[in-house]
Amino acid sequence: MFSETVSSADYSKFPVPSMRHAAAESGLERGSIRRVKAKEQIFCDGDPRTHVFRVEQGVITLSKLLSDGRRQIIDFAYPGDYIGLGVLPDYVFDAQATCAAKVRCLSTSALEQEAATDASLALKLYKAVSAELTAARSLLVSVGQKTAMERISAFLLNLVARNQKSGAEAGVVRLPMRRSDIGDLLGLTIETVSRMITKLRMMRVIDVVNGTEVRILNRGRLEELAGE
Amino acid sequence: MFSETVSSADYSKFPVPSMRHAAAESGLERGSIRRVKAKEQIFCDGDPRTHVFRVEQGVITLSKLLSDGRRQIIDFAYPGDYIGLGVLPDYVFDAQATCAAKVRCLSTSALEQEAATDASLALKLYKAVSAELTAARSLLVSVGQKTAMERISAFLLNLVARNQKSGAEAGVVRLPMRRSDIGDLLGLTIETVSRMITKLRMMRVIDVVNGTEVRILNRGRLEELAGE
DNA sequence: CGGACCGTTGACTCTTGTCAAAGCCAGTGG
DNA sequence: CCACTGGCTTTGACAAGAGTCAACGGTCCG
Hints:
The structure is a homodimer of 228-residue chains. Chain A is an alpha+beta fold and 228 residues long.
């Protein structure tokens, strides 16, 4: 499963380049682009936190692994999202591309140095992390309180909202992740995820094409099913 | 149950006072102290986010309520923790005191204004929110992946770690919250919480006095049970 | 063509939730 | 001083939602 995984040191091969057009760029715009292949690991839990990444293309899975193999996905990072923000010296989760992707690499030390004197940059970091916190807590509510059906429904609505922003066809969601990823995000098994999706299809609430594209047929019903 | 609850507007009666010794104080030190009684609501989900609070004494429960009454506790805020940080115009959860408590009230607008020019303050906010994010994700891993026994064990160890810092007797934890609070934090029912605590007592891993004070008898075993 | 991977479906199990009753403790009022 | 009340916890019996195990099918790719 991890045969394509790249050693955790690999991302150090993508240093932040010298500031060629620095004057025009804030600390969050600089940085070289790194291409990652599907299933390639960007960094691992426990690695020194040398870079912060900004997703430019693709979807990145952020996850935490327990020693016995259980996995909790903490978030899916979409284009525009930042990965690896925080105050700890090491990364505290794994980051892996679900599909071919591009990320911008920002040196942690340079970022922190700049933020120490640039209040607007520091505030941007504050806002980015606050948004992550809101998302994490919302997921926590789902996982802690909702039934399998409610979690799947809420998850789909969440994806719709994200995709809307990136201007996709209304009411159609691409699922770039596998069933096991959805399960590990929502605290369910792949079988349960599959069954709930089948049930939603049977209820004519959604339609699924190729297993990866979901068309919302009855948004109102889906919202009811998502349990507020 | 909510007979002692204070109307959501009440905290506006505690404005930030004029800066009497401003030169010596950063934006996070200023602010009047507000006393809250046990079970008193500090603010509600949806109220305008007029203040950020710093817990000075007691324990504050942060929770999110679903329309049908299910409740997810997002965090317990201990002395030194900040409540209500973020970028949204309204509060996105309820804050309620589990026991008599004191909080310092900081005006949101003043804080934001100051942070816009003071990078070190903005960085402090960034760090505070980052810590909350780490805690939220750690809880998410518990709730999403762990069994009831593992969640309870991890929860107790978490409390031990927090209390250690505030210099309590080693290996003894006070539980200022009720079983229903623990259940709503961990995504379990009160019955399950009670059963697991009983089981831990039977296994001689912990001892419980008065239902509110837990003595850790076998920390190693408890760590094993917490599932990494 | 064959294998690997992923998703779906079915039968069965089990952990946890639900419902109900009893115990415990603190505060109150006679 | 003590019985009463209400809130919280504990315990038990039972139910159900989700997990486990297993088999099958589809798709991609060498």
